[in-house]
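Re: that chain you flagged

S.,

Sorry for the slow reply, it's been a week of failed gels. I finally had a moment to sit down with the sequence you sent. For the record, here it is as I used it:
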Amino acid sequence: MSKRSLLTLQQRAYLLAPPSCEYELEQLTRFSEQDVVLIQQHRGTANRLGVAVLLCYLRHPGIALEAGCRPSPRLLRRVAAVLGLEEAAWEGYAVRDQTRREHLVKLYAYLGLRPYRAEDGQTVLPYLTRLAIQTDQAMTLAEALVAWLRQQHVLLPSINVIERLCAVALTLGARQVYARLNDALDTGQRQRLDALLERREGCRLTTLAWLRSVPERAHDRGAAPHMARLRVVEALALPAHLSRLAGAERMREWTDAGDRMSCHDLAELDPLRRMAILLAIVLQARAALIRMLQNLEKLKAIDALCLPSGLRQLISPGRMDKLAVEGRHMTPKDLAKLEPRRRMATLLVQVLELRGALVKDILEMRERLVGESWEGRRFG
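Prediction finished late last night. Pasting the structure tokens below so you have them in one place:
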């Protein structure tokens, strides 16, 4: 089975293509007097057009257009128009590949460029790794690598080399983030996190699975199950600043990775990575539980009003929406000044809308807490 690429086909093509922006394309093909002199030194329309196109590709994206590769139609058309040459002349360019290679050698010297070497990868890797500590987006790293190579006047390597360098940087960056998180924990906190992967006393589930298994209809079961789970999370006594050490995007990625693993899978991970994923899961669970409890408290206050059922059926959805919009733009003082029947109707609509939003949010929190791949799973 082939290894999945870090970059999509579109991203790979974008990195090695001339600019698509009209302004950037115009800037790229705005040849200087010195450029024109160099181009005019070559005999024949085909050679002049070929050298001009190679010059553009070397400047951006920073590659030597290979033999047999047709340039971007937009770039070819613009270069031909700027130089007053026939676009069709490209077909006669570099019939002998040696001609193209000779032109490239001359252009390398003219632009001060050199080919990519393995040492360049070793030089830029620390920079990419520092960036990978901040983000896990491969395209961000690839763009940074390409920009660095252009600044160093180094030709871009193949897309596979770019991707491999980014993969190494992402791995090293993730390890450093794992280390940061682990260093922020004391021995007792690590032990308590690992204990989440053990069966809960008197239960067939591990504590981690129990934390993420909430009643099917959470908003109808009261706050007690969620309070019990939150107490277990708080008993871990984790430092408050952990999520800032890794960043929200990476924490979400680790939580998603945890969703795809059983507790046995987690237990088999490298200790540093296991601790990072457990932390991400627990911190997400804590946030979801707190928000769910807050919403349940609000829902309890609304249900204590003992409003009659079927109120929504008494007026049309359009009228309901209009009253809701009007109510959202009023302060309590404005509402108090309304004629009593209108005030009561506006308050009713506000309460019904709020209750619906709370129930929806509670269910969304439940899904986030449980995770799709955890439902129906047996842990033991």
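What I noticed first: The chain has 19 helices and no strands.

Talk soon,
D.
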